[in-house]
Each structure stands twice: as structure tokens, then as C-alpha cells.
Amino acid sequence: MSLDTLNDIFFEIAARGNSTVALQRQTSGWAPISADDFCSRVFGVARQLREWGISRGDRVAILSENRVEWTIADFACLLLGAVVLPIYTTLTPEQTSYMLGDAGARAIFVANERQLQKILSLRSETSLENIIVMDDIQTADGVQMSQLMRSQSRLEPAAGSAHPDDLATIIYTSGTTGTPKGVMLTHGNMAGNINCSLAGFELGPGDLSVSYLPLSHVTARHLDLAMLHRGVNLAYVPSIGQLPQALAEVRPTIFVAVPRVYEKIHAQVELKTQGFLKRAVYRGALTTGSRHRSIILESEEGNPNSFLWKIADRLVYQPIRRRLGGRARYFISGGAPLGRELAEWYADVGIRIHEGYGLTETAPVIALNNPAAHKLGTVGKPIANVEVRIAEDGEVQVRGPSVFRGYWNLPTETDAAFVNGWFNTGDIGNIDEDGFLSITDRKKDLIKTSGGKFIAPQPLENSLKHHPLIAEAVVLGDRRKFPAVLISPDFPRLRDWAQSNHIAFDSHENLIGLSPVNALYEGIVADLNRRLARFEQLKQVLLVAEEFSADNGMLTASMKVRRKAVEERYRSRIDQMYAKNELSAADSATRQN
């Protein structure tokens, strides 16, 4: 069935009666939630919102990790015509206050005591009238959601009616640069994208997806709504730290992740293949896998028939796939560039990852590799209801029914985002002769050296991050004489390396200051430089002792690097590195003269 609005998904669920819709972890195990129970809970919450006067166009916020209550709150708001405002739990009180105030939210759902106290600390700065708490905590400042969900009420037939042009949600951009902007997405934007995004993927009743990527992010919310539309069960996982256990227990048939999750899985595999014998078997298996890569990339079910591949599969590939539950038919990556080396590694262990591309402003999917049309190193062909073209300067431009209405309260920024009806994505890319789209970098991230050379940092960073000793890499050099790189090591692996080489250290700061460690990373960068054009080669390496996270502001809530925040945080060290190089160059020139 083709969707016109997001409410259509709810009524599809309502028609499934006693069928399981979702799974939620309890102390006794995974408990199923039927369609009837789910819809009853939605109606109970919607009735309370309506009694508070929440109606069409009012903004209601959700501040919670992934749990079934998140989706219940979402549908309860949508049935009333309210506009949902998702907020990341990792945002500071100041950031949260800004979004609530800018959107004029009248009510908010919060997950727990910690988030409740955050909201209470800033409530006077907002227009909030009511608070609903998902956890069963006693408080005079909010209403327990569990009480509302036990209500047996239903809404009158008029409730739930929506038009494709009705505003469904305001999603604030992750803010890798500047102040976040509220992206306005209509029911038609999101429903139209769901209709087309997973074409070619055979998913339906009997399949299961793990909901662990933050639902405040457009990709995760789109995915879960698409799964509900297809009749796929959702298993809610509140924390990414609980993901390994959940994968082993529920064994999803589709696995969707951002590149950082795939990177961590790769790093864990590398970490567990220590010792001469394990390493030899692992390397041999990767060599065998690379020889059969084309077969894996041609089909999910096209496992090679060679004797060596079957041996490698039993010894190496199967244990890796078991980390992901062991029965996933489809693997999808989005949210940021995956990196060709990482995609090749997964193909070599028997996993074909379908990389896609999208933005909050496009609701979100623009292009996606699928089982019928797949090309490594690309983000796939544009989906059916989206047009894509490449501007003269290489920027990817998009138009179609999935493209957003505009930025909330920012008409000037909205006008600037479009050229003759085409949305400027801010990404640089190209379309090959077969129609596959490739994204090379963010337009604003392109580095221009003082010599006038343009460098796309993301491909270099992705290549470096594929090395198990590197957690994050940020290429530097804008308006500088040469490019360099700032590296946050993968400290668990680096500590193991240091100990195996009998190198003493007492802290991360001490460790990265040691000559053998600096030589190690300079060697890794030197290996990359041999594959680069001369002007792209990274001349200096700056190691930092800090691990990047959303909590320290180095990553967005969707786990992308905040490039400007990183450069600002380490500004003095970066300046010292370049100044020291210039002094060395000047001293060398003086001696030669």
C-alpha cells in the first residue's frame, strides 16, 4: 500500500490485531507488544494531549532514548495533527532550551529522572505547559506516561485525518557548523520517501530490525517507520552499549548502522585476532575473501563455492557475522561516508553493505544501493521519486516530493538553500555512466591550501580510520602551506601495542608523547601518502589524547565529527605545529645558504 501520510502507517498497524509489532527488553527477557496493545497505548496518550488542548500545528517535543514509548508518543502527536520535535538526549541544557524555545513547544515527553531535571532547570525559558515522563517515577512536575497508556479510550473518527502538506515534524540539524536549524518536514515528505527508499529489499512479516540508532535522527526514525509500514518487528535498544547483547538475543534479519558502528565492529575483530596463529588465519581468510569479493557483491545469497572460501567462512567469516546476530540478509549504511576500504573489508568477510545517502532536508533518503543495483564505492542510484543533478561546481542538487518545506522561522536561509527549485545539498559528488551517485566530500569541508590546491578530506580520513589503531582523523590545512592530520588513536589497541612492545606509559597523554608511538603513526600516514598526489600528502601528524564523543562536543549526536569544534579545541597545538615546521624550513634554508 502506498502511503499518503504517516498516519496511514498507524492505521496499518491497527489492522494487524493481535500480531506482534515490537519487542521490548524486560528483566525476564524480550516481551512482545501486539498491534492492539500498541494502538490502545497511542489512543490513551493522544486523549490526554487533546485534553490539554494540543491540536493541529502545536509543537510537542520528545526527549528520550529509543524505547517503544518514543514511537507511541510520536503517533499520538501525529494523530492530533501536532508537530513532533525530536531532541537528542546528549544535548546540553542550553542546546535543548534553544530548540524548545525556537519551536515554541507546548508539551514534552521525557524518558527519565535525569532528563526531567534537565527540563525543569530550563522550563522558565520555554513555553512548556506539560511534561509526560516515560519512567514510572513519582513527581509533582509531570504525568506518568504509563497511566495514560492504560486508558481504554479511543479517538473519534475525525482524529488521525491528515493531509500530505501538513507539517509532521521539525528536526533540528546536528549542527556540525553554526547554530542548528529546524528542518520542517511534512507528512508527504516523509511518507513519499518511505514509499520509495527500500525498493528492491524484500522485507515483511517475519523480519526483525533492531531500533538502536537515536530516533531523534531522521535516518533512524525513517527506518523504524518504514519497518512498521512493511510489517517488520522492531526490537528497541535504548543504548548502543546494549547492542551486542541484543543482536545475539533477537538476531535481526536487517541491520542498519552509521559508519562509526561498522568501524567499531571492524576494530573489535582486529583486536581479537592477536597472536601469530590467529593473525595468520585471519590474514589468510581476508586474502581468500578478497579473491571472491565480486561474488559477494553480486548477491546477498551468492556465497562462493570454493573449498578455501568455505574453510575461511567457518573459521573467520561466520564468527564475525554472529556478532551481528548471524541471520541478517541485508546490511545498510547511512548518515556519513562509509569508506571504500571498510566496505571492501566487509565484502571480504561475506557481508555486502548497501551504502546510501541522504539528508534531514530530504526526509532523508536521496540514493541507496539495493540488491538489484549495487556498486561498491557509490551511494547507489537516486530513489524513484527524487531527481539529482550535479552543479557546475560539483555540488549535488536535489528536487522532488521528499525535499523539505523550509527552515523553521528562517525564510532567508530557506531561500538561500534553493536554486530554481533545486535544493543545494552542500555535498560534492558525481554521477557515473550507469547512474550511480558518489559523494566525495562536504562542500564547506573542502580544504584550500595557501598554494591554491583543493583537497577533499573525507576520503583521506576514511582511509586512515580503516586502520585499527586510529579512532578518528581530521585533515587540516585550510589556508595553510600544506595539509596535515590530527589523529585520535584507538587507545585500547594502542595500549595493547605498547605493552606488547614493552613500552612503559602511565596515561594517554604520556603515551602519545613517546617517540615510538609518534613513529608508528607517522608510518601509517606515510603508507597513505604513497597513494596520494603530491599536493594531497599529509606532511605532519598531530596526536591527541582525547577520545572524541558527543559529550565533549567533538562528535554530533549522530556520531559525525564536528570539524570546526575539533580545530578550535586544538587551535594552539595546530598553530604550534605549523609554526614549528615553518621555523624548521627557514632554519634549513639558512644552513643551505
Structural key phrases:
single chain; 593 residues; alpha/beta; Rossmann fold; GMP Synthetase, Chain A, domain 3; five-stranded parallel β-sheet; five-stranded mixed β-sheet; 20% strand; globular
Task: Walk me through this protein's architecture.
The protein is α/β, with parallel strands linked by helices and 593 residues long. Among the domains are: 7-162 and 198-252, Rossmann fold (3-Layer(aba) Sandwich), CATH 3.40.50.12780; 446-592, ANL, C-terminal domain (GMP Synthetase, Chain A, domain 3). The protein contains 21 helices and 27 strands. A five-stranded parallel beta sheet has the order 4-3-5-6-7, with helices on both faces. Strands 12-13-14-15-16 form a five-stranded mixed beta sheet. Helix 4 packs across helix 5 (113-122), helix 7 (187-197) crosses helix 8 (218-230) and helix 11 packs across helix 13 (307-323). The longest helix is centred in the C-terminal third of the chain and has 22 residues, at 571-592. The chain is globular, with a radius of gyration of 25 Å. The termini are far apart.
